[in-house]
Amino acid sequence: MIRIGIIGIGFMGYTHFEGACDLSGGRVTAIATRNQKKLDGDWTGVQGNFGPPAGKVDLSGIKTYSDYHQLLADPDVDLVDICLPTNLHESVALESIVAGKATLVEKPITIEVEAADRMVRAAQEAGTLLMVGQVLPFFPEFRFVAECVSSGRYGKLRAAHFRRVICPPDWSEEMADFRKLGGWGIDLHIHDNHYISLVCGVPKEVFSQGILQDGLVNHLHTQYIYDDREPAVSCVSGGIAADGLQFAHGFEIYLERATLLYNAGTLGGEWVVDRPLTLLTSQGDEKVTLPQLAGGAEWYSAFTDELGQAVEAVESGKEPTILSGALARDALKICAAEARSITTGQSVAVA
Asked: What is the pLDDT of residue 170?
Protein backbone atom coordinates (compact mmCIF):
# COMPACT_ATOMS: atom_id res chain seq x y z
CA MET A 1 0.00 0.00 0.00
CA ILE A 2 1.51 3.32 -1.13
CA ARG A 3 1.06 5.99 1.51
CA ILE A 4 0.23 9.44 0.16
CA GLY A 5 0.81 12.78 1.84
CA ILE A 6 -1.07 15.77 0.41
CA ILE A 7 0.43 19.24 0.84
CA GLY A 8 -2.15 21.99 0.38
CA ILE A 9 -5.89 21.68 0.95
CA GLY A 10 -7.45 24.02 -1.56
CA PHE A 11 -9.79 22.79 -4.27
CA MET A 12 -7.21 20.51 -5.90
CA GLY A 13 -6.06 19.11 -2.56
CA TYR A 14 -9.70 18.34 -1.77
CA THR A 15 -10.15 16.78 -5.23
CA HIS A 16 -7.09 14.56 -4.81
CA PHE A 17 -8.23 13.58 -1.32
CA GLU A 18 -11.64 12.52 -2.63
CA GLY A 19 -10.10 10.79 -5.63
CA ALA A 20 -7.85 8.73 -3.36
CA CYS A 21 -10.89 7.33 -1.52
CA ASP A 22 -11.53 4.96 -4.46
CA LEU A 23 -7.85 4.26 -5.07
CA SER A 24 -6.55 0.71 -5.32
CA GLY A 25 -3.03 0.27 -3.98
CA GLY A 26 -2.74 3.60 -2.23
CA ARG A 27 -4.34 5.79 0.40
CA VAL A 28 -3.90 9.20 1.97
CA THR A 29 -2.11 8.89 5.30
CA ALA A 30 -1.14 12.53 5.92
CA ILE A 31 -2.09 16.07 4.98
CA ALA A 32 -0.37 19.41 5.52
CA THR A 33 -2.01 22.82 5.62
CA ARG A 34 -1.49 26.00 7.65
CA ASN A 35 -5.24 26.34 8.09
CA GLN A 36 -6.26 25.02 11.52
CA LYS A 37 -9.90 24.79 10.51
CA LYS A 38 -8.96 22.40 7.72
CA LEU A 39 -6.68 20.42 10.05
CA ASP A 40 -9.73 19.93 12.24
CA GLY A 41 -11.65 18.47 9.29
CA ASP A 42 -13.80 21.48 8.43
CA TRP A 43 -13.27 22.05 4.71
CA THR A 44 -16.41 24.09 4.11
CA GLY A 45 -15.80 26.92 1.69
CA VAL A 46 -13.48 24.87 -0.52
CA GLN A 47 -14.93 24.69 -4.04
CA GLY A 48 -13.97 24.90 -7.69
CA ASN A 49 -15.47 25.00 -11.18
CA PHE A 50 -16.62 21.37 -11.10
CA GLY A 51 -17.81 18.95 -8.45
CA PRO A 52 -19.60 19.80 -5.20
CA PRO A 53 -18.21 22.13 -2.53
CA ALA A 54 -16.37 20.46 0.34
CA GLY A 55 -17.84 20.02 3.80
CA LYS A 56 -16.79 18.25 6.98
CA VAL A 57 -14.12 15.59 6.38
CA ASP A 58 -13.27 12.58 8.54
CA LEU A 59 -9.53 12.76 9.19
CA SER A 60 -9.38 9.95 11.72
CA GLY A 61 -6.33 7.80 11.06
CA ILE A 62 -4.72 10.58 8.99
CA LYS A 63 -1.75 12.55 10.29
CA THR A 64 -2.26 16.30 10.15
CA TYR A 65 0.64 18.74 9.92
CA SER A 66 0.59 22.51 10.07
CA ASP A 67 4.15 22.57 8.67
CA TYR A 68 4.68 20.65 5.42
CA HIS A 69 8.31 20.00 6.39
CA GLN A 70 6.98 17.58 8.99
CA LEU A 71 5.16 15.67 6.26
CA LEU A 72 8.32 15.56 4.14
CA ALA A 73 10.19 14.11 7.12
CA ASP A 74 7.51 11.49 7.82
CA PRO A 75 8.92 8.01 7.06
CA ASP A 76 5.38 6.71 6.61
CA VAL A 77 4.80 8.85 3.49
CA ASP A 78 5.87 7.26 0.20
CA LEU A 79 4.38 9.73 -2.28
CA VAL A 80 4.17 13.48 -1.74
CA ASP A 81 1.24 15.05 -3.57
CA ILE A 82 1.76 18.82 -3.94
CA CYS A 83 -1.49 20.75 -4.43
CA LEU A 84 -0.22 24.21 -3.55
CA PRO A 85 -0.51 27.43 -5.60
CA THR A 86 1.66 27.25 -8.71
CA ASN A 87 4.25 29.76 -7.48
CA LEU A 88 5.17 27.32 -4.68
CA HIS A 89 5.54 24.22 -6.85
CA GLU A 90 9.26 24.50 -7.52
CA SER A 91 10.48 25.17 -3.99
CA VAL A 92 8.35 22.48 -2.33
CA ALA A 93 8.98 19.90 -5.07
CA LEU A 94 12.74 20.42 -4.77
CA GLU A 95 12.51 19.93 -1.00
CA SER A 96 10.47 16.78 -1.54
CA ILE A 97 13.06 15.44 -3.99
CA VAL A 98 15.88 16.20 -1.52
CA ALA A 99 13.88 14.30 1.12
CA GLY A 100 13.94 11.29 -1.21
CA LYS A 101 10.19 11.23 -1.76
CA ALA A 102 8.46 10.27 -4.99
CA THR A 103 6.71 13.51 -5.93
CA LEU A 104 3.49 14.37 -7.74
CA VAL A 105 2.87 18.04 -8.53
CA GLU A 106 -0.54 19.32 -9.59
CA LYS A 107 -0.47 21.07 -12.98
CA PRO A 108 1.08 23.23 -14.25
CA ILE A 109 4.55 22.04 -13.28
CA THR A 110 5.40 25.71 -12.69
CA ILE A 111 5.17 29.04 -14.52
CA GLU A 112 8.77 29.56 -15.67
CA VAL A 113 10.57 27.16 -18.02
CA GLU A 114 13.85 27.62 -16.16
CA ALA A 115 12.20 26.52 -12.92
CA ALA A 116 10.70 23.47 -14.64
CA ASP A 117 14.15 22.58 -15.97
CA ARG A 118 15.56 22.75 -12.44
CA MET A 119 12.82 20.46 -11.14
CA VAL A 120 13.29 17.86 -13.88
CA ARG A 121 17.08 17.96 -13.53
CA ALA A 122 16.96 17.61 -9.73
CA ALA A 123 14.74 14.53 -9.98
CA GLN A 124 16.98 12.95 -12.61
CA GLU A 125 20.12 13.58 -10.57
CA ALA A 126 18.49 12.22 -7.40
CA GLY A 127 16.98 9.21 -9.16
CA THR A 128 13.59 10.21 -7.74
CA LEU A 129 10.24 10.22 -9.47
CA LEU A 130 8.86 13.64 -10.43
CA MET A 131 5.35 13.42 -11.87
CA VAL A 132 2.92 16.15 -12.86
CA GLY A 133 -0.83 15.77 -12.51
CA GLN A 134 -2.01 16.63 -16.02
CA VAL A 135 -5.40 14.95 -15.67
CA LEU A 136 -6.92 15.59 -19.11
CA PRO A 137 -5.69 12.34 -20.73
CA PHE A 138 -7.55 10.37 -18.05
CA PHE A 139 -10.99 11.70 -19.03
CA PRO A 140 -12.73 8.98 -21.07
CA GLU A 141 -13.29 10.98 -24.27
CA PHE A 142 -9.67 12.16 -24.41
CA ARG A 143 -8.37 8.75 -23.40
CA PHE A 144 -10.35 7.14 -26.22
CA VAL A 145 -8.79 9.50 -28.76
CA ALA A 146 -5.28 8.85 -27.45
CA GLU A 147 -5.83 5.10 -27.73
CA CYS A 148 -7.18 5.43 -31.29
CA VAL A 149 -4.14 7.46 -32.35
CA SER A 150 -1.53 5.28 -30.64
CA SER A 151 -3.06 2.02 -31.90
CA GLY A 152 -3.49 3.21 -35.48
CA ARG A 153 -6.92 1.56 -35.44
CA TYR A 154 -8.30 4.10 -37.92
CA GLY A 155 -5.04 5.02 -39.60
CA LYS A 156 -2.71 7.87 -38.82
CA LEU A 157 -3.67 11.26 -37.46
CA ARG A 158 -4.11 13.82 -40.24
CA ALA A 159 -5.47 16.85 -38.38
CA ALA A 160 -6.93 17.99 -35.06
CA HIS A 161 -8.53 21.04 -33.49
CA PHE A 162 -9.03 21.60 -29.76
CA ARG A 163 -10.98 24.15 -27.71
CA ARG A 164 -10.78 25.04 -24.00
CA VAL A 165 -12.28 28.28 -22.71
CA ILE A 166 -13.57 29.74 -19.44
CA CYS A 167 -14.99 33.00 -18.15
CA PRO A 168 -12.87 34.90 -15.61
CA PRO A 169 -13.33 32.77 -12.46
CA ASP A 170 -14.92 34.08 -9.30
CA TRP A 171 -15.32 30.75 -7.55
CA SER A 172 -11.84 30.74 -6.01
CA GLU A 173 -9.68 33.43 -4.45
CA GLU A 174 -6.62 31.42 -5.50
CA MET A 175 -7.68 31.61 -9.18
CA ALA A 176 -9.19 35.09 -9.23
CA ASP A 177 -5.89 36.80 -10.12
CA PHE A 178 -4.63 35.38 -13.42
CA ARG A 179 -1.25 37.06 -12.83
CA LYS A 180 -0.41 34.61 -10.04
CA LEU A 181 -1.20 31.73 -12.40
CA GLY A 182 0.90 32.87 -15.33
CA GLY A 183 -2.21 33.86 -17.29
CA TRP A 184 -4.80 31.54 -18.77
CA GLY A 185 -2.32 30.78 -21.52
CA ILE A 186 -0.54 28.66 -18.90
CA ASP A 187 -2.93 27.67 -16.14
CA LEU A 188 -5.77 26.64 -18.48
CA HIS A 189 -4.16 26.08 -21.86
CA ILE A 190 -1.32 23.89 -20.60
CA HIS A 191 -3.88 21.06 -20.55
CA ASP A 192 -4.08 21.34 -24.34
CA ASN A 193 -0.34 21.64 -24.87
CA HIS A 194 0.31 18.59 -22.70
CA TYR A 195 -2.36 16.52 -24.44
CA ILE A 196 -1.25 17.61 -27.92
CA SER A 197 2.36 16.74 -27.05
CA LEU A 198 1.26 13.34 -25.72
CA VAL A 199 -0.93 12.43 -28.70
CA CYS A 200 0.54 14.35 -31.63
CA GLY A 201 4.11 14.86 -30.43
CA VAL A 202 5.90 18.01 -29.34
CA PRO A 203 5.69 20.50 -32.23
CA LYS A 204 8.75 22.05 -33.85
CA GLU A 205 7.25 25.55 -33.90
CA VAL A 206 4.06 27.41 -33.05
CA PHE A 207 2.32 30.37 -34.62
CA SER A 208 -0.09 32.13 -32.28
CA GLN A 209 -2.35 35.16 -32.27
CA GLY A 210 -4.08 36.27 -29.14
CA ILE A 211 -4.69 38.69 -26.31
CA LEU A 212 -2.03 39.73 -23.84
CA GLN A 213 -2.82 41.39 -20.52
CA ASP A 214 -0.01 42.64 -18.30
CA GLY A 215 2.35 40.68 -20.53
CA LEU A 216 0.52 37.39 -19.96
CA VAL A 217 -1.52 35.37 -22.45
CA ASN A 218 -5.23 35.37 -21.63
CA HIS A 219 -6.60 34.14 -24.97
CA LEU A 220 -4.98 32.59 -28.02
CA HIS A 221 -5.38 30.75 -31.30
CA THR A 222 -2.41 28.53 -32.10
CA GLN A 223 -1.23 26.54 -35.11
CA TYR A 224 1.23 23.77 -34.18
CA ILE A 225 3.92 23.16 -36.80
CA TYR A 226 5.58 19.78 -37.26
CA ASP A 227 8.61 18.73 -39.33
CA ASP A 228 6.61 16.99 -42.05
CA ARG A 229 3.78 19.58 -41.91
CA GLU A 230 1.40 16.87 -40.70
CA PRO A 231 -0.58 16.55 -38.63
CA ALA A 232 -2.29 19.93 -39.00
CA VAL A 233 -3.10 20.84 -35.37
CA SER A 234 -4.72 23.95 -33.95
CA CYS A 235 -6.24 25.10 -30.67
CA VAL A 236 -8.24 27.99 -29.19
CA SER A 237 -8.01 28.60 -25.46
CA GLY A 238 -8.47 31.42 -22.99
CA GLY A 239 -10.29 33.05 -20.12
CA ILE A 240 -12.33 35.83 -21.74
CA ALA A 241 -15.73 34.16 -22.22
CA ALA A 242 -18.92 35.78 -20.93
CA ASP A 243 -19.97 34.77 -17.42
CA GLY A 244 -22.65 32.46 -18.80
CA LEU A 245 -19.97 30.26 -20.33
CA GLN A 246 -18.10 29.07 -17.26
CA PHE A 247 -16.22 26.33 -19.09
CA ALA A 248 -16.18 24.56 -22.44
CA HIS A 249 -13.90 22.09 -24.13
CA GLY A 250 -13.95 19.78 -27.10
CA PHE A 251 -12.18 18.57 -30.21
CA GLU A 252 -12.35 17.55 -33.85
CA ILE A 253 -9.97 14.69 -34.68
CA TYR A 254 -9.37 13.65 -38.29
CA LEU A 255 -7.85 10.20 -38.77
CA GLU A 256 -7.34 8.50 -42.13
CA ARG A 257 -10.44 6.35 -41.73
CA ALA A 258 -12.46 8.12 -39.05
CA THR A 259 -13.44 11.49 -37.60
CA LEU A 260 -14.01 12.00 -33.86
CA LEU A 261 -16.12 14.86 -32.48
CA TYR A 262 -16.78 16.01 -28.91
CA ASN A 263 -18.03 19.23 -27.32
CA ALA A 264 -19.25 19.93 -23.78
CA GLY A 265 -19.22 22.60 -21.10
CA THR A 266 -20.88 24.45 -18.25
CA LEU A 267 -23.40 26.93 -19.67
CA GLY A 268 -25.48 29.03 -17.33
CA GLY A 269 -24.51 26.81 -14.41
CA GLU A 270 -25.56 23.56 -16.12
CA TRP A 271 -23.31 20.89 -17.62
CA VAL A 272 -24.30 20.57 -21.27
CA VAL A 273 -22.96 18.00 -23.73
CA ASP A 274 -23.55 19.61 -27.13
CA ARG A 275 -21.91 16.72 -28.92
CA PRO A 276 -21.17 13.48 -27.06
CA LEU A 277 -18.11 11.65 -28.31
CA THR A 278 -19.03 10.67 -31.86
CA LEU A 279 -17.06 8.35 -34.13
CA LEU A 280 -17.78 8.75 -37.84
CA THR A 281 -16.48 6.47 -40.59
CA SER A 282 -17.42 5.89 -44.22
CA GLN A 283 -20.17 3.60 -42.90
CA GLY A 284 -21.65 6.37 -40.72
CA ASP A 285 -21.77 6.56 -36.91
CA GLU A 286 -20.05 3.79 -34.98
CA LYS A 287 -20.86 2.96 -31.39
CA VAL A 288 -18.24 4.24 -28.96
CA THR A 289 -17.47 2.30 -25.80
CA LEU A 290 -15.68 4.72 -23.52
CA PRO A 291 -12.91 3.51 -21.20
CA GLN A 292 -14.15 2.90 -17.66
CA LEU A 293 -12.67 4.99 -14.86
CA ALA A 294 -11.49 3.28 -11.67
CA GLY A 295 -13.62 5.66 -9.60
CA GLY A 296 -16.73 5.03 -11.70
CA ALA A 297 -18.80 8.06 -12.60
CA GLU A 298 -17.88 10.27 -9.65
CA TRP A 299 -16.85 13.86 -10.29
CA TYR A 300 -13.29 13.05 -9.17
CA SER A 301 -12.93 9.72 -11.02
CA ALA A 302 -10.36 10.93 -13.56
CA PHE A 303 -8.18 12.00 -10.64
CA THR A 304 -8.55 8.53 -9.13
CA ASP A 305 -7.08 7.10 -12.33
CA GLU A 306 -4.34 9.75 -12.34
CA LEU A 307 -3.38 8.91 -8.76
CA GLY A 308 -3.52 5.23 -9.65
CA GLN A 309 -0.87 5.79 -12.32
CA ALA A 310 1.28 7.63 -9.78
CA VAL A 311 0.90 4.80 -7.25
CA GLU A 312 1.88 2.21 -9.87
CA ALA A 313 4.92 4.32 -10.73
CA VAL A 314 6.05 4.37 -7.09
CA GLU A 315 5.58 0.60 -6.91
CA SER A 316 7.54 -0.04 -10.12
CA GLY A 317 10.02 2.82 -9.90
CA LYS A 318 9.25 3.67 -13.56
CA GLU A 319 8.01 7.09 -14.64
CA PRO A 320 4.77 6.90 -16.65
CA THR A 321 4.90 8.95 -19.85
CA ILE A 322 1.45 10.36 -19.19
CA LEU A 323 2.68 11.94 -15.90
CA SER A 324 6.23 12.65 -17.02
CA GLY A 325 7.82 15.73 -15.51
CA ALA A 326 9.79 16.22 -18.73
CA LEU A 327 6.62 16.13 -20.86
CA ALA A 328 4.94 18.63 -18.53
CA ARG A 329 8.03 20.84 -18.87
CA ASP A 330 7.82 20.58 -22.67
CA ALA A 331 4.15 21.63 -22.53
CA LEU A 332 5.24 24.72 -20.60
CA LYS A 333 7.88 25.41 -23.26
CA ILE A 334 5.10 25.47 -25.84
CA CYS A 335 3.23 28.03 -23.71
CA ALA A 336 6.34 30.22 -23.63
CA ALA A 337 6.80 29.93 -27.39
CA GLU A 338 3.15 30.92 -27.92
CA ALA A 339 3.61 34.06 -25.84
CA ARG A 340 6.66 35.01 -27.91
CA SER A 341 4.77 34.33 -31.13
CA ILE A 342 1.89 36.60 -30.10
CA THR A 343 4.38 39.33 -29.16
CA THR A 344 6.46 39.11 -32.36
CA GLY A 345 3.82 38.07 -34.87
CA GLN A 346 6.17 35.33 -36.06
CA SER A 347 6.40 31.56 -35.84
CA VAL A 348 8.54 30.63 -32.84
CA ALA A 349 10.58 27.48 -32.26
CA VAL A 350 9.71 25.34 -29.24
CA ALA A 351 13.00 25.11 -27.39
From this structure: 67
Task: Flag whether pLDDT at 171 surpasses 60.
Answer: no
CATH: 1.20.1250.20, 3.30.360.10, 2.60.120.280, 3.40.50.450. Which one for 136-291+330-349?
Answer: 3.30.360.10
pTM of the model: 0.95
Residue 297 banded pLDDT, cuts 50, 70, 90: confident
Label each residue of the chain as H, E or C.
CEEEEEECCCHHHHHHHHHHCCCCCEEEEEEECCCHHHHCCECCCCCCCCCCCCCECCCCCCEEECCHHHHHCCCCCCEEEECCCHHHHHHHHHHHHHCCCEEEEECCCCCCHHHHHHHHHHHHHHCCCEEEECCHHHCHHHHHHHHHHHHCECECEEEEEEEEEECCCCCCHHHHCHHHHCCHHHHCCHHHHHHHHHHCCCCCEEEEEEEEECCEEEEEEEEEECCCCCCEEEEEEECCCCCCEEEEEEEEEEECCCEEEEEEEEECCEEEEEEEEEEEECCEEECCCCCCCCCCCCCCHHHHHHHHHHHHHHHHCCCCHHHEHHHHHHHHHHHHHHHHHHHHCCCEECC
Tell me what pLDDT residue 292 has: 81
- For domain 2-135+304-322, give the fold: Rossmann fold (3.40.50)
| Structure confidence at residue 182 (pLDDT) | 86
